[in-house]
Amino acid sequence: DAPETIFVERRDRVGLITLHRPKSLNALNRQLAREVLEALKAFDADDNVGAIVITGSARAFAAGADIEEMANLTFAEFYCDDIFAPWDELRSVSKPIIAAVGGYALGGGCELALMCDFIIAAEDAQFGQPEIKLGILPGIGGSQRLAKAVGKAVAMDLILTGRTIDVHEAKAVGMVARVVPSNELLQTALEAAHTIAGYNCPAVRMAKEAVNVAFEASLTEGMRHERRLFQAAFATEGQKEGMHAFIAKRAPVFRHR
Ligand code: HXC
């Protein structure tokens, strides 16, 4: 079935997912979670796609989990029907995912942005984990990823006070990779994704895998993992092409498969 809560399109070698529930500022309900994950998996399996961008509207990337959908759920219902479980599958996507964030990225919206590989944000972006104001706490990795991204002090401040930070504070603490004018947000994100999609595809996936190991493993294990991936890169055609092109002083042409 065609998705109803998102737009899915391909721009050249970039897969673009646009969250679209304008009446609720892109609140993340079950249907949206299912549709985003389906689209991501399809892009991950598509040889014509080398990188992915997730964006929202000018007003909101996403204002969090859908409060109306959650409000009356009991512990037993939540436990037996774990409506947030689909988001865990985002970790299995091996191609890079860029979050292009304008407007509100709150609660689950902030967590979704943090789940992506990096964030490019518009001048008017706002980030926060306001769950504490609703009597709850982050539920799709915010307490873990925010702590890893910005350290204990800032993570505790945001999660315990529920305050919202502007894009400059988010950039200063390391949540955001780049800040751009609002009217250049999508273009900048698509260009970054396009650049990535033009590189040696296995090397791109290996690089993403290697950085992610840093969040799970000891330095020794992580270094070993990186070294094996580095050596494996020499089994790819793209490594030969990249290096021979450099030596011949020409632009490399990576074959995508
Ligand atoms: C459902 C939401 C929503 C949400 C906004 N809306 N956020 N509906 N779930 N998370 C709806 C509003 O009810 C309203 O609907 C419409 O979107 C526009 O929002 P307004 O509040 O009228 O806009 P504004 O005054 O500009 O305020 C914007 C806002 C505010 C600051 C973002 O909407 C807000 O505080 N939203 C909730 C943010 C939040 O608490 N997020 C955390 C959710 S819990 P109507 O019908 O009135 O027009 C969470 C848990 C994570 O994320 C767990 C894992 C996913």
Automatic annotation (TrEMBL):
Top-level taxon in the UniProt lineage: Bacteria
Keyword Nucleotide-binding: no
GO MF terms, alphabetically ordered: enoyl-CoA hydratase activity
Enzyme class of the recorded protein, top EC level: lyase
EC nos: 4.2.1.17
Signal peptide: none
Keywords for the protein's UniProt record, in alphabetical order: Lyase
Family according to the record: Belongs to the enoyl-CoA hydratase/isomerase family.
Name by which UniProt lists this protein: Enoyl-CoA hydratase
Species: Marinobacter qingdaonensis
Lineage of the species this protein comes from: Bacteria, Pseudomonadati, Pseudomonadota, Gammaproteobacteria, Pseudomonadales
